[in-house]
Every structure is written in structure tokens, then in C-alpha cells.
Amino acid sequence: MQVETLYKPYEIEKKEMQRFPKVTKRNNFFELIHIIEGTGIQTVNKNRFNYRRGNLFLLTPQDVYSFDISTPTTFFFIRFNEMYVKEKMGKDKEAVKQVEYILQNASHRPGCILKNKTDKPLIASLVESILHEQSNQQLYYNRITEQIISTMITIVARNIALKLPKNIKENTGEPVLEMLQYIQQNIFEPRNLRAEKISGHFNISLNYLGRYFKKQTGETLQSYIANYKLRLVETRLLHSDMRINEIAYEFNFTDESHLNRAFKKYKGINPSEFRKINTVN
After folding, report:
1. Alpha helix (H) ranges present in the chain?
2. Tens digits of per-residue pLDDT, 211-247?
């Protein structure tokens, strides 16, 4: 298996291809791939997806992928790694949250990341703007390119948020989307995630809140909060050197045993086993 390494915070590339390298690829970085033209099949972790013009894919360091090109395809790649995140931390903490959100919620399955139809032409326009800036290289073109990339990451984060709960659709109302954002922003503050607090914040009857949330998302409010927290735990296990007890403390579990029980119910194995298996793989 071919492993590629990115030695700078990010890079962009436009490539027209009739055949994709047959070597199955796994990278040490994150990759956004936009299809400018062409059709074919994307394979990620042995799952297949028919791609076409306008699709945008998100690939993580855990993903093994390839493309089977049916008609000549023009790919646009944005690659970024941990260096990108660290550089942004001192400049734009919101961008860091957006990148972290991608790490937390990437599905590791094939398919277009854009679930909001209106975002597809927007992404195409942003890609065109990046290519224009890189081609003309006028004053501040690199800074402008970075800002456009940050905007694309924000759009990706929004679409992942739309995708997460089972019943979230493109026409889902704003209130539940705002609730999801509120939960994500307050995940480290258990007091703010009590049903009474949420109902008061959104001016929704406490009795109606649970029914409304389940109808809109397909899962209960407490189930969504618990699973979202465990997805964050999963990210810490994969992308940090934190000890299990440190992760338990960060996410307000009673102790390490409490986290072990919750995580085993969520993934079928305890956190230490999960980290060991994925590190080996």
C-alpha cells in the first residue's frame, strides 16, 4: 500500500486524469477532493460510490481509497495536516474548531460530503476562485487562498452537521440545527446540556423538547449528547497521546471505569483496546 506524507501545512493541486494510479493509497493527512469534470467510482475502505461533477469528498488519515475513472476526470485536491491546525491555533481558533469537527465526525465511507444542495455551486465557485488566485498570483494571493480554504472547511463542517443525526434532511428547520450547534459548543459544560437549560435557551416547552428533537433527528436528546461525547472521545484516542484518565476528566466522566463502560457499550471494546487496534492498523 502506498503511503503519502505532506510536509507543509496544506497544498492544493488540480489534476486531469484518465487513469488513477492502481496503488491503493493511505495518507498521513486530510484531503478534500472536488470533482470538476468526469465520472467514475470512488472506493473508500472497500465501499464504492459513483462520482460525478460537483461531488466533494473528505478523506482522513484512516481511509484507504482509490478511484476507478470511467470518463476523463479533473480532480481538485486540498490536502492539510496537523501542522495546518497548529498554525491556525494562534490566528483563527474558529478554524481550528472547524477542522476538529471534521476529525470528530468524518464517516470513513465513500460519498459526496455535500448534503445541502445550495452548497454545491458555492463550493464550485470557491474552487474556481482558488485556481484564479493561484494562477494570477497577485498581491496577497496566498492569504486569500487560505481564507477561501477556511470557508470551504466551514461549509464541510456544516454539511457534516446536517448528516449526523438519522433524520436530518436538507429541509430540516433551523431550530434543531441551532440545537445541534449549541450541544457541540457546550459539550464540556454538562450544566448547559440539561433539558431544562436547553428548553429555556431555545424557549421551547420542556415537555415538547424531547418529542421535537427526536422527531427532527431520529434519536433522543440524551442519546445524541452521549454519542456525540463518545465520538469526541474516539477522536482523542485516535489523534492524541492523552491518557485514558485524562480523557475521562476532560469529558466529565466520573472516573476511568465510567468511561470504559460507556465506550465499550458504544464501540464494543474498551478505549485502550480501541487505541491499540487502530494504532497497529
Report:
1. 82-89, 93-105, 119-136, 141-163, 174-185, 195-201, 206-217, 221-239, 244-250, 256-267, 271-280
2. 999 988 888 999 999 988 998 888 788 767 789 999 9
Amino acid 148 reads: I
pLDDT score at 170: 44
State pLDDT tens for residues 184-221: 778 888 999 999 999 999 999 999 999 999 988 888 99
d(CA 231, CA 239): 12
Q: Cα 120 from chain centroid?
A: 17
- Residues 102, 53: contact at Cβ < 8 Å? no
Exposure of 207 in the CB half-sphere (CA atoms within 13 A): 0
Identity (one letter) of the amino acid at 143? R
Residue 78 near residue 12, CB atoms below 8 Å: yes
Which pLDDT value is given to residue 271? 94
Task: Say if strands 2-4 and 25-27 run parallel, antiparallel, or are unpaired.
Answer: parallel
- Residue showing cell 428548553: 199
Say if CB 263 and CB 274 are below 8 A apart.
Answer: yes
Alpha carbons 117 and 108: distance in angstroms, whole number: 21
